[in-house]
Amino acid sequence: MTGHFVLRSGATSGEYFDKYMFEADPPLLWDIAEAMAALVPDDVDALAGLELGGIPLAVVLSQVTGLPTRFVRKQTKAYGTGRLAEGGEVDGLRLLIVEDVITTGGQVRASAADLRARGAIVDQVLCVIDREAGGAQKLAEDDLKLSALFTASEL
């Protein structure tokens, strides 16, 4: 959609990719996950869906690929188990971070650092849309390779 939008990064944009529209549509979400499956590296042990938009994608991608999923919070849970990632341990696992839209990659970089601090091997990120706003370059600074199903210019 078009208009005036403030993005998570704080930047403004005249275009907004409403990822919840495709994440809330089961047949479309399934089609996206099937297309993303071809981009999943062979050496991945588990998918790491980031809160909030990456989680539905990771769940359906898990169904398509048979890979287990971890649900990654933006911040460590302040109660109960106090975990950053739910669904199983991450220590020693090669995780593929799954996200919906990448702009600057700020949350992905933070989550990758948090997962690495817990012993996960994280070097790959898969998203549906790369807004082509410098996110891939910022991720590369943290040794993270971005693969995208679509780029903003393609859409």
Report on the architecture of this protein.
The protein has helices at 19-23, 26-37, 54-65, 106-117, 135-141; strands spanning 2-6, 12-15, 46-50, 69-72, 85-86, 94-102, 121-130, 145-151. The protein is α/β, with parallel strands linked by helices. The strands form 2 sheets. The protein has a 6-stranded mixed beta sheet, with helices on both faces. It is globular and about 40 Å long. The relative contact order is 0.16.
Short description:
By secondary structure, the protein is an alpha/beta fold. The protein has helices at 19-23, 26-37, 54-65, 106-117, 135-141; strands spanning 2-6, 12-15, 46-50, 69-72, 85-86, 94-102, 121-130, 145-151.
Keywords:
155 residues; 5 helices; globular; alpha/beta; six-stranded mixed beta sheet; two-stranded antiparallel sheet
**If you average the pLDDT, what whole number results?**
93
**Largest sheet: spatial strand order:** 5-4-3-6-7-8
Element-level helix/strand string: EEHHEHEEEHEHE
Low-confidence stretches: none
Fold blueprint:
Blueprint: E1 2-6, E2 12-15, H1 19-23, H2 26-37, E3 46-50, H3 54-65, E4 69-72, E5 85-86, E6 94-102, H4 106-117, E7 121-130, H5 135-141, E8 145-151
Helix pairs in contact: 2-3
